Amino acid sequence: MWVLMTYLTDMWKLDITHAAAIVNLFAGAATILPVGIAFLVDAFVGDYCCLLVSSLAFSFGLAIMTVSTLTSKGDTQKFLMFYIALTLNAIGVSGHSVSLASFLERQVQIQTLSNQDDIERKRPRKFKSFLKGDIIVVVLLYVAAVALSYAPWCVRFGIPAAGLMVATLLFVSGSCSYKHARPLGRSPLTTVCRVLVASLYKRSCHSPQDANQLYENQLSPHFVPHTQGLRFLDKAAIIVPTQTLGQQEQNGWELCRVTEVEEVKLLIRMIPLWMTFIMSGVVKSIGDTYFSEQANNMDDKIGKLTVPGLFILQAFYQVSKFVFTELSSKVANKLFQKSSGRCVGPIGVISAMVFSILCCIIAAKVETRRLNVTKSVGLVEKPSEIIPMSMFWLLPQFFFLAAVDGTSEYLCEDLDEVSGYCIARFYRGQVPTSTMIRYLRLFTKAVCGAGIVGSVILADEVSSFSKMGGRPSWFQDTLNRSRLDNYYWTVAVLSFINLVLCILVAIWYTCQHLILMMCDVVVAVKRVVLYFYAPVVSRL
Q1: Into which family does the record put it (predicted)?
Q2: Distance of CA 284 to CAs 95, 244, 329, Å?
């Protein structure tokens, strides 16, 4: 969907602000929706139904978008079809991001090798065949993308729609051979609501001094020890004397386990760090919008050879993003091996902020040069003309944008290898693996999505601010008349402020961790004292 900005400005003749708002609202919704869809998958529908519905939604969305490019109806009807298509596409993307990985993992679990020697012997052969197949698929996809870049818009949307329809039919044809899993009937989000409701219900109760008096099912395979802090939530695990334990266990909305309370504490403790991550979403939002629009209006020739420049920039971005994702993983592992694994600052988030600042500064410098070239050749009032400046000037800003996205993707996805460097695992040094980990990942992505949506508001506020004193707005109808360089400088300043806040939050987390450790030590000392001296006091 990285061509969507070009489609809206070239075909619909929208101004860059309106087109960017549509693209960013779609991208933000596709990132926020997985939280709600994950709840439905866990509680009601399961992975298979989610994949089926999302595949159908994605297919029909692209089909409707294709029809909207062919229809001769008025702008209102065409826009209505387009918005319906975007909504269906957002549902399709969100559903696949939630269920595809877990569904495929369940199918792969059927085929296991019992002999470790067979595993070691077949691993190189399997890796080589996978690598060859993966390269072939990627090359074919890129060749198809290059070919489609010269086709009409109905073909650009129609061929992917037909491909998705065929893929959906193939997916449905194998339904009988899939390994299905029933939905759990519950969700970690339900646990959050239960803990909050139970805490409010028992708000008049006093929390016991000894955490061992709180309710915990010791027979459960998953157990999280009690931590100090957020004591109000501990009231959800208080056993009231007016009812028997069996009666209270039957009503999960009045009594919760300590493990469930600690999972909710984990989410609440992540909120300050999540808030600093919003700016990454703001920086991401300019990649598929303003960067793409700049590339679309610049020279796409290498010598006398015309190349699909926007496609090359996107391919360069994807490769760089993959490199930074892998690099973030290796660096984090090295740092983790040299540290205790606890109380380590969110280095990944800080790195993403630094890359964001560099990306915006370079983008501002390049845009200033592009505007100067535009003025020198007299193309300010000719938005359809190509600027005599190579689009490969945009490579550095795409590189640092890939660094932001690659680092952020590692922070969102890599939840099992390193403790302390990933945003969703900042407290994993204290809290072991739990059912909340999947939702931590989704919440992290949702925060980035909120930043993408927030960029729409930011652009509007910046436009209003720039018009103060009767000055022209930085956002005009065309790219050549706008001052995107000033907007990039604004985002760079905001990213720097966010970097400072991120460092302060990291220091605060470290202090909080030390406080929690001291509280645990004090509680342990009290228990030892009571154990040895309580019999002596009772005799006196």
Answers
A1: Belongs to the major facilitator superfamily. Proton-dependent oligopeptide transporter (POT/PTR) (TC 2.A.17) family.
A2: 21, 54, 20
